[in-house]
Amino acid sequence: MGSGHVSVDGGVRLRGRRGAAAAVVEDALLTRAGHWRDQALSTPGRLAAIGLVLVLLALASGAATGLAVGARDTRIDTLRGSADPLANAAQDLYSSLSIADASASTAFLAGGLQPRVMVDRYDSAVAAASAALATATMGVGDDDTTARALLASLSAGLPIYTGLIATAGANNRAGNPVGVNYLGEASHMMQTQLLPDARRLYSEQSAAVVDLEHRNASVDWMPLFIIALTLVLLVAFQVYLARRSNRRLNFGLVTATVAIALMFAWALVAGLVSASFSQRAAAESTGPLSVITTARIAAQQARTDETRNLLARGDDSAIPQTFDQRMVTIEDALDEDDGGTDSGARRNLDAWQAAHGEMRHHLARGDYAGAVDVAIGTDGTSSGTQFVALDAKLEDRIGELRARGQRLVDDSARATGFLAVGSAILAGVAALAIIFGLRPRLSEYQ
User: Which among 274, 366, 376, 395 is least surrounded, fewest beta carbons within 10 Å?
Assistant: First the structure.
């Protein structure tokens, strides 16, 4: 009994001692928390806290600027390395297919033994289409399922088309009328499957280029906002510190302010210049390039319509209407690119239309041989000669516009070339300057 009583009493004393110890610890923590609170609310505590915030903002300014420049550089690299080459390959594919179709129909008009120049033009167009198809296939990403499906369809369809053309040519040389049927089937496949797929591919890749240029044409305002906020707080802090310490200037804070101001000016000017070059690339290259590409395709398809009209001996009334519509498309494109395209292109177009009218006149009189001579003759007044001259000028204009766009994109990249490194250096200088500027003030309270 006695021993049990002692044990209970000992347990009570033990719990009492533990409670007292906990109370002591709690009092010590409260005392320390109060000390910390007093330190934080004191003048040196406030100065240290504000300085820490300013240091973090200075570093954040450099980091935000570097991230924004990195994102812009990534978009520019994507534009130069994949988007623009893919769009160009799609444009080459589209144009080459149209040239091949027009050349095949033109060569067919010559009768049994097709002229070498026409055969070479067809072969070159098919080879160019195959090369563009291979380039586009290698460049399209695995995640672009639509483009890959279009490329797969084109890869499967092009050999079938060339096979039909080969069969049509063989029958034509043998004098078999069935050759016209094979040519018609091949042309129908080109107009209803291959060219629509190529046009869709070109439209999608061009849209990707336009999207990247549009995003690069805007200034990244978030880094500028952070830099401006840091600059305003630095100035406000110096005013506050001058009033508290009766000193006008703090060398460290002035140095930090100059560094942040330089960062703001550099980021603003570089951003505006880079965005301006991207805007010019869209306005002076990508936009007109789409217009001239459309005109060139329309010219090639108009040439196909012209030769198909001859092969049908003028019996298909829908073909002349389609031809006239394509002529309007070309005229509108040349008007929109007024001053850019070689002025001779307009003269070639007018001469082509005049020759086409003469060809129709021959057909209306039943002079088929005369109509064919106007269409594929080698003299300067034939529609074939004027079409080739117009196509060459449009091709040159496409190359000129693309080269201009590449130069402007390069200029856009150069405008922010050293901004990321420079902003990091200035941010580091500002952060160190803030620390060294506050140390003497804080030491005064010790």
Answer: 366
What secondary structure does DSSP assign to 133-147, as a single string?
A: HHHHHHHS-TT-HHH
Q: For 50, list phi and psi in degrees, rounded to 5.
A: -65, -40
Q: Which amino acid is at 138?
A: M
Distance of alpha carbon 391 from alpha carbon 396, whole angstroms: 9
Cα angle 88, 94, 96; round to 5: 100
User: pLDDT tens for residues 254-300?
Assistant: 999 999 999 999 999 999 999 999 999 888 888 888 889 889 888 98
Q: Residue 168 in contact with residue 180, Cβ under 8 Å?
A: yes
How far apart CA 11 and CA 3 sit, in angstroms, is 12
Q: pLDDT (tens digit, 9 = 90+) per residue, 206-227? A: 888 888 888 888 888 999 999 9
The span from the CA of 93 to the CA of 168, in Å, is: 23
Domain range annotation of the chain? 1-32, 46-78+89-443
pTM of the predicted structure, to 2 decimals: 0.76
User: Using CA atoms, how far apart are residues 251 and 434, in angstroms rounded to an integer?
Assistant: 9
Q: Which of 118, 192, 125, 206 is nearest to 157 (CA)?
A: 192
Please identify which residue in the block is written with the tokens 């990195």. 70
Q: Token pair 């200029």 is at which residue?
A: 411
Q: Residue 212 in contact with residue 71, Cβ under 8 Å?
A: no
Distance of CA 182 to the CA centre of its chain: 41
